[in-house]
Specification:
This protein is α+β, with helices and mostly antiparallel strands. The strands form four sheets. Strands 6, 7, 9, 10, 11, 12, 15, 16, 17 and 18 form a ten-stranded mixed beta sheet that branches. Strands 1-4-2-3 form a four-stranded antiparallel beta sheet, with no helix packed on it. Strands 5-8 form a two-stranded parallel sheet. 19% of the residues lie in helices and 30% in strands. α1 packs across α2.
């Protein structure tokens, strides 16, 4: 059991206690703290507080007892990993195309988490009460490239806070349909659930969250453009939605672009090229690049030789 004590400052005045704790621990969910509250593991001014609806007052002394993490039900699997960097705090992996990051309905095995559990054995974080790899951000199943995995609670919290503060440098590369008119530009548009197709995201200024994507042209191909994308925010399907919104969906993206797939691609041509962040132990800025995947370099040759 780990016990931590916090004094509430003015900025948290009148906040719900579960929201207050989730802000203090950005890598843990509100539901995790709601469970701790119900179990009597949170006290305010030395009085046990079980109601999530309790409103924080300035100068409240909040004590949190965090039980030891339990084993996850997810099974380790001996799946080869392309590791770009590894130390006692983090692993940077180059995720292949077609691999799901975290188990979900329809994908309970063969995921990146299954592979990380096998690779790390007992050296993992216990965020949210489960011993599991520190998944602090995700990329889509058919997006390739660099991904941070945290190996302990401290690194998980520090990296999660950087992601929340939008200080992690994320550069993607991809091929979009058609020719972008400008050599560079910025797309701004709140992203939320599609109003009728719930499995899709969409520009949704009413209910969406702010999203900003910068792009620059790397190479103009035949009927396509090779471009780099820099994210200021990290919304679900952000690059895919934003590029489709200006009439240039990612090549192969049959969800946000055309259902036709003349090059027989496995999903969108998008690659998480560079990930940069402040190392959780040293505080120094570090940056890692994932090589452009072979399927994309092969596609360049076809697009350079295709007649106009």
């Amino acid at each position: 059991m780990t016990t931590e004590i916090f004094e509430a400052t003015e900025q948290y005045e009148n906040a719900r206690i579960d929201s207050f704790l989730a802000a203090i621990y950005p890598s843990c969910s509100r539901s995790f703290f709601q469970k701790l509250l119900k179990e009597g593991n949170v006290s305010v001014n030395e009085l046990i507080q079980k109601k999530s609806s309790y409103r924080i007052r300035q100068d409240d002394i909040v004590t949190v007892n965090i039980p030891p993490a339990v084993e996850t039900a997810i099974l380790p699997e001996n799946i080869p990993l392309d590791i770009l960097y590894e130390d006692d705090d983090v692993i940077i992996v180059n995720k292949p195309k077609g691999m799901v990051v975290h188990p979900c309905p329809g994908h309970y095995s063969g995921t990146l988490v299954n592979a990380i559990l096998y690779h790390c054995k007992d050296n993992l974080s216990g965020i949210n009460g489960e011993i599991r790899p520190g998944i602090v951000h995700r990329i889509d199943k058919d997006t390739t490239g660099s991904l941070i995995i945290c190996k302990n609670d401290q690194s998980h919290r520090i990296i999660a806070q950087q992601i929340k503060d939008h200080t992690v440098n994320r550069l993607y590369r991809g091929i979009v349909v058609g020719h972008l008119k400008e050599d560079s530009g910025t797309i701004q548009g709140a992203i939320g659930r599609h109003p009728t197709l719930r499995q899709k995201m969409a520009i949704n200024e009413k209910n969406g969250k702010p999203a900003i994507t910068h792009y620059r042209v790397i190479e103009r191909l035949k009927n396509a453009t090779y471009a780099e994308f820099k994210l200021e925010t990290g919304r679900t399907h952000q690059i895919r939605v934003h590029m489709a919104s200006i009439g240039h969906p990612l090549l192969g993206d049959t969800i946000y672009g055309s259902e036709k797939n003349p090059y027989h691609l496995q999903g969108q041509t998008l690659h998480a090229y560079i990930i940069g962040f402040r190392h959780p132990s040293t505080g120094e800025y570090v940056e890692y690049a994932a090589p452009i995947p072979e399927y994309m370099t092969a596609l360049f040759k076809k697009l350079r030789s295709t007649p106009s």
